[in-house]
Amino acid sequence: SGKTSGVGVQHRIVLYLCIVVPSLLLCSTVHLQNMSETKANTKKQEFNEKEKERDVRISNIIAAKAVADAVRTSLGPKGMDKMITSPSGEVIISNDGATILQHLEVKHPAARMLVDLSKAQDIEAGDGTTSVVVLAGALLHAVNQLMSRGIHPTAISEAFQLALKKALEVLHTISTPLDLSDREALLKCATTSLNSKVVSQYSNIIAPIAVDAVLGVIDPKHADTVNLKDIKVVKKLGGTIEDSQIVHGLVFDQSASHSAGGPSRVTNAKIGLIQFCLSAPKTYMENNVVINDYTQMDRILREERALLLNMCKKIQKTGCNVLLIQKSILRDAVNDMSLHFLAKMKIMVIKDIERDDIEFITKTLNLVPIASIDSFVPEKLGKADLVEEVSTTDSKLVKITGIPDMGRTISVITRGSNKLVLDEAERSIHDALCVIRSIVKDKHLIPGGGAPEIEMAQALLAYSKTLSGVEQYAVKAYAEALEVIPYTLAENAGLHPIHIVTELRNKHASGEKTAGINVRKGTISNILEENVLQPRLVSTSSLSLATETVTMLLKIDDIVATR
User: How far is CA 372 from the centre of its chain?
Assistant: First the structure.
């Protein structure tokens, strides 16, 4: 029995070794395989996420750079113009960055951010709309190179903020203060902004208009901003840009109403602005009145005539001899019968006044808009020495001059031989006005011609050597990106960009802080002697906005479409 039990134990051990152990080994192998597969899947998922983030950022950078490249050739005095055509057949010729981007049909959300960037620069400074987009494109190129080295986007954006702070400090050191009574310096700034426009050959006419217009609506001693709504630009086709003029008064681009006669020139004018209709009243709902005999028809016509005559007599009684009538959208603001009565009373009528112009007219003439005939009193009228209708090449306009106690407003008449030139002249005047407004906001000037960008780049390169690690690389890349402005200026002027930028670096390294690119002579010269000046606000605004947009694009790691 002892032997038998010994043999049984041996059999059980053999069975255990043959069956159980291999199954345990198999289970452990399967478990290890599952663990390794899970780890591999996790790593693969992490890898895919990182790839996706990188692809989204690269896609954003490529789209935004495409927009920057589209306007880059328009930078500077020798920049090219763009011809923009709309589906309706309208044609626009301009090299203003904001105008070009406004008409571009941009689909990519990141590219639309650069369009909004140009719009923001236009609102803030009015000039530098092309520069800000070109600068943003160069910074995005620098970002792409830094990311390809494995530097994290957050580290890049933080270093860019450091670089921006240092660059703004450099701008403050090279700027010079300006007194608003210095008209010559203001003219130089306005002329510099107009040099890159299609109508640059008329800068000696447009610049004085812009400067005088702004100085006419502000108090130079206390002003810190300019409301451009106080300057009304009236476009009138015909003549040339040389016929453009500034009017210390009010100008309407429509003629006086002469359908029933009426005067075209009034001296010692008393001017009323009405917002009610001089026509037969209508029901508020669409009702029909059925007339079945002639006596009722005659009665209606007599009543209408009596009503309109009574209203015109009330207007005449106040001494009003010039009547401005706001455009009505519900019914005719004035009819032929009313015009006939007003013409008999020697009252000059200017109709179809736009609702948007009411505030400007009220401020200029010191009058009160009248909403009903019952409130038409002499106290609400404005006064002027002369209201006259002036003939232009193919149409007429109305001028009101000699206004006592006139509000701080100015009217500018812009002339042009065709619609394209006229529109570009208006845009150029707007840009020049914005430049003067920038000087009023921040009373400092800096040299142009790429001088501030090179000076900032030199200072940032020196600053980057005091830093270490990732910050050093990013600040250096930011400094190199700033050189895109002088490089593009030289390239668009047909010069050798590398040679010009290298020479410019050498000049600044030797202490010539005002050395810039003279695109007319094709050399490096003291840009202040060439009268190329620009407001400091234009450069500070473009730097801040471009850096802000680039850091915002850097923070985006995914694009999610909504339902």
Answer: 39
Angle subtended at Cα 324 by Cα 323 and Cα 327, rounded to the nearest 5 degrees: 140
The DSSP code sequence of 342-355 is HHHTT-EEEEEE-G
pLDDT band at 51 (very low <50, low <70, confident <90, very high): low
Size (the chain), residues: 563
Count Cβ atoms below 10 Å from residue 149 Cβ, excluding itself.
9
Contact 57, 153 (CB under 8 A): yes
The model carries a pTM of 0.79
Catalytic positions are 96, 129-130, 431
Calpha distance 141→56 (Å, rounded): 15
> How far lies 318's CA from each of 258, 313, 379, 381, 499, in Å?
22, 9, 9, 9, 75
Kindly report the number of other CB atoms within 10 A of residue 504's CB atom: 28
As a whole-number percent, the residues of the chain with pLDDT over 90 amount to 17
d(CA 227, CA 214): 9
* Alpha carbon distance 234, 82 (integer Å): 25
Q: Can you tell me the distance from the alpha carbon of 380 to that of 369, in angstroms, rounded to the nearest whole number?
A: 7
The secondary structure element, H or E, covering residue 375 is none
Phi and psi (nearest 5°) for 84?
-110, 125
- Exposure on the CB side of residue 467, measured as CA atoms within 13 A: 18
> Which is nearest to 218 in space by CA: 170, 186, 176?
186
Q: What is the mean pLDDT of the chain?
A: 83
Contact of 476 with 426, CB cutoff 8 Å: no
Residue position matching structure tokens 């736009």: 354
